[in-house]
């Protein structure tokens, strides 16, 4: 199928074309340019709108009422759920999606990753992100503390053998943590520091050993203290690290969001959704990793007695009657709008949902609209709402 978008403001990722056009054929950008283009049959004039690359989300657990890994590895159920999640987020502009799995027994994680392997191979998913089980019990957040454990090489090997793991979040202070960072980095897997109680020195050691990502910075880790900077300062201040930020007004105050983005600098921060099943759905009762989650006003929290020590790392004193934050109900287009409304430049925010996360994944074909790109195009109106997605 061929589509040509005409007369829009085209953001290719490398340049902005005020009166531009994009030619897509069979999901690939074949040409991009400026000025008049004779309208072919499948053209659409998009004057007054922005044409941007498809978004890239490297941290997403679910959406559209479905969750990655919910069945524990049943191939048919996992594929159906994954496609439902991808469909919801694609409607909101995300065309490259990494499936994040919460803590489960390692054999179950292997089964889920194996069940999703066909979708990774086909390109429907961009890989698997393991957020657990090698996390700190002190910063468990919505993860069941009983499922958390120290990493051992045999478990790491079993998960790597699935061939689809692209990122792993772990707490480097655990016994064997730094060795695991090294093992994963040598295998070409992105290592992220998160759900950690590490001090700054241990965090720096993890980066020196190969960690390159901060999982939802500030959340599920010690807060900054002027005499104990902890992981936040160590990660934010290291130019080798890309930091994840959740722009929903729940995980981070807008002032913290903008400060972190400016401190990191363009190209060193990404927006992620950390979305769970309720993304795109009404308030109600949901599940994440076997735990009951209550969504009220679009905010997901563990139901009473399900756990404490939420994703904001306040050890449970933030959750009130509904308990700890349990992911988000975000989509990336909403995160983009929130970040822009908070005062960040549109170009910087667009980079944080396109080329920077694509670069993390090593996907030179995603996150831009230059010829050869395969991530599709998203049409945004003047309010940055998604009008259409073109693949």
UniProtKB/TrEMBL annotation:
Q: A single GO BP annotation from the record? A: N-acetylglucosamine catabolic process
Write the record's keywords in alphabetical order, separated by commas: Carbohydrate metabolism, Hydrolase, Metal-binding
For this protein, the record's Pfam families field holds: Amidohydro_1 (PF01979)
* InterPro entries from the UniProt entry: Amidohydro-rel (IPR006680), GlcNAc_6-P_deAcase (IPR003764), Metal-dep_hydrolase_composite (IPR011059), Metal_Hydrolase (IPR032466)
Q: Which residues form the Amidohydrolase-related domain?
A: 51-381
List the PANTHER family.
Answer: N-ACETYLGLUCOSAMINE-6-PHOSPHATE DEACETYLASE
Q: Which family does it belong to?
A: Belongs to the metallo-dependent hydrolases superfamily. NagA family.
Going by the entry's taxonomy, the superkingdom of the source organism is recorded as: Bacteria
Q: Mind telling me which residue stretches traverse the membrane in this protein?
A: none
Put simply, this protein is called N-acetylglucosamine-6-phosphate deacetylase
Cofactor(s) recorded for this entry are: a divalent metal cation
The active site is formed by 274
Q: How is the co-factor bound, per the entry?
A: Binds 1 divalent metal cation per subunit.
- Which residues does the record give as Zn(2+) binding sites? 131, 195, 216
**Gene Ontology molecular function terms on file:** metal ion binding; N-acetylglucosamine-6-phosphate deacetylase activity
